[in-house]
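Let's sit down with a protein and look at its sequence and fold side by side. We need material for that, and I hope you will provide a protein of your own picking. Once you have written the record down, we can walk along the chain together.

***
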Amino acid sequence: MKEISADIEKIIRSQKVLIELGRHLTQIQDISQLLREIARRTSDIMEAERSSVFLYDKEKDELWSVVAEGERQIRFPADSGIGGYVLRTGEIVNEDDVYNNPLFNREIDRKTGYRTKSMLCVPLYDHNHDVIGVYQVLNKKGGVFESEDVRLLMAVAGQVSVILQNVILMENRKRMFESLIDALAESIDMRDKLTSGHSRRVMHYSVKIAKKLGLSTNEIRIIKYASYLHDYGKIVLKDSLLLKPGPLSDDEYVQIKKHVDFTRKILERIEFEEDLVDVPRIACLHHERLDGSGYPMGLRGDDIPLGARIIAVGDVFDALTNKRHYRRRWSVKRAFGYLKKEAGKKFDSDVVEALGEVLKEDGVLE
């Protein structure tokens, strides 16, 4: 009777733990932090030293640690170790002494310097009930992992599986989005062999400048995409205008300037996620100047978004240091000298200074 009461008590405790864990996790937005917190709390709940979540990398046929308490990322072949066995079979392994188990991969302990004694390892399933990874809990303090520990870890693993599937989905969407942006940028660069690579170089300068200025991760993302697509509106322009050798006439220059309006209109058709809704606006304002001499709106000073001020500097620098149909390329020193001269007038001084630091780091400016 006492044993039955003890089992009921364990079940009640497990359910309370799951409810508390679920309530706590809803308050965490960052996926990495979320998984680390799950691992930490799992270790506390199960009175274990460490917890690790491994995801299967199909391309490399490896298991890699999405989170591993006390260690940096761990990778090992998916056909090795207890984790590999659980991945292949979907079976649960509860081992009191892993060094007596021929499946155990001692190489990981040798590399990390950690001594694994006991291990409870359960599979992580996707919605098709395919194994996508494993959840390991190591070294039960003062005893061995019991059946209630197995039930509890499987319950937690169910939550982790949902999170990991969302991570995989988001990563796939991110890769698709990145490839779309890359294709769009390449399509405008391919219009003119002379300017090929301009968009990517402007993105390189703009992102590095943004990091130098200490902008947030999301601000940098906005600048990354806006700078990569800043000239996309030129795809509407005729080759006779875009590829014309020599200087443009006044009327032709008016037509060329319309590319920023086309950029905005085209990019606004893209359904950017909420954090990136400013991409079209930032992209179309890269020709604005602090003194109001720019276009399309003639904005002045701080009325120009910082992202647009950053792209403006990267755009002008790259344009000057590469050959155009109407002039030869300038040296890096001459181009940067021009930007320094116009800093505080046409260009943001802090942005120009940050570009100088980037160019020195890139080894192209002394």
User: Anything to note?
Assistant: Residues 165 and 356 are 43 Å apart (CA to CA). The longest strand covers residues 48-57. The longest helix spans residues 147-189.
